[in-house]
Amino acid sequence: MKTMVIKVGGALLACETGIARLFETLQGLQQGGWQLLLVHGGGIVVEQQLQANGFTSDKKQGLRITPAEQIPVVAGALAGTANTALVAAACKVGLVPVGLSLADGGMVQAQVLDPSLGCVGEVVAKASTLPDALLSAGMLPIISSIAVDETGQLLNVNADQAATAICQLLGAELTLLSDVSGVLDGKGQLIASLDQAGFEQQVALGVIAGGMKVKVEAALAAAKSINNCVRIASWRSPEQLAALLDGEPVGTAVQP
Ligand SMILES: Nc1ncnc2c1ncn2[C@@H]1O[C@H](COP(=O)(O)OP(=O)(O)O)[C@@H](O)[C@H]1O
Ligand SMILES: CC(=O)N[C@@H](CCC(=O)OP(=O)(O)O)C(=O)O
């Protein structure tokens, strides 16, 4: 059976229509014979809850600086609020979701990425026992980007990097759905196909930056591992979701 990891993030978690449309698409893909795993971020929920708790927050090169005192709020926002909202939406369309974080079932190994970012983790694929079992049972794993390292420390992982590790764990296809229709060039036009050299060129020009730089780096790493292109598209666009459902090319194809 074909397996696909779909990653969602950005403002999706604040958009009821977007969530409903996404799960209708997932339902259609599952009926079409795909085994699916959803990996999610929820930067918007993290920001709201940090602010509500009196914290300020900054990003460095697309990654959120996460001081130790903020990790309980970040974990609550991603593994709690965002994860359960997506689980609820899956139930509503009759899918059978299982809400997880990267810490569950020994799926990945996590470590601190860079101490200057605080409790930010990087993860590598470890054991697929848990997702294998859930997928064979026809269930939909919904995985937040919260991890735990060997010392028991909770870590905040960028959700595109989390999706890459889960894609590598299963040798699955990967689609990254964001707020934008794909990677855009200096004129705001969609780049249909992007390889390592093209990426480096656009970064040098300052066209690809911030969260999109992290996203394309994650996509390039995944594409090389699975030797297949990874797509970056938008959950906002009904046309792109329909194309995804019909197996047609969507967004930017990041090449191995
Ligand atoms: N060349 C580019 N093409 C598209 N978006 C870009 C580009 N460079 C920077 N970005 C920014 O990256 C954002 C997507 O990254 P990010 O916010 O991390 O997405 P998500 O939260 O969905 O993972 C876009 O909304 C845009 O502001
Ligand atoms: C380390 C780091 O940057 N973690 C991210 C995790 C969530 C995420 O990636 O959310 P999106 O997919 O919505 O951007 C954060 O705290 O925002």
UniProtKB/TrEMBL annotation:
Native organism: Ferrimonas pelagia
Keywords: Amino-acid biosynthesis, Arginine biosynthesis, ATP-binding, Cytoplasm, Kinase, Nucleotide-binding, Transferase
Gene that encodes the chain: argB
Gene3D superfamilies per UniProt: Acetylglutamate kinase-like (3.40.1160.10)
Pathways per UniProt: Amino-acid biosynthesis; L-arginine biosynthesis; N(2)-acetyl-L-ornithine from L-glutamate: step 2/4
Top enzyme class: transferase
Protein name as annotated: Acetylglutamate kinase
UniProt family annotation: Belongs to the acetylglutamate kinase family. ArgB subfamily.
Catalytic activity: N-acetyl-L-glutamate + ATP = N-acetyl-L-glutamyl 5-phosphate + ADP
Gene Ontology molecular function: kinase activity
Binding site for substrate: 42-43, 64, 156
Native organism taxonomy: Bacteria, Pseudomonadati, Pseudomonadota, Gammaproteobacteria, Alteromonadales
UniProt xrefs under Pfam families: AA_kinase
Primary subcellular site in the record, as a coarse category: cytoplasm
InterPro entries: AceGlu_kinase-like_sf, AcgluKinase_fam, ArgB, Asp/Glu/Uridylate_kinase, Glu/AcGlu_kinase
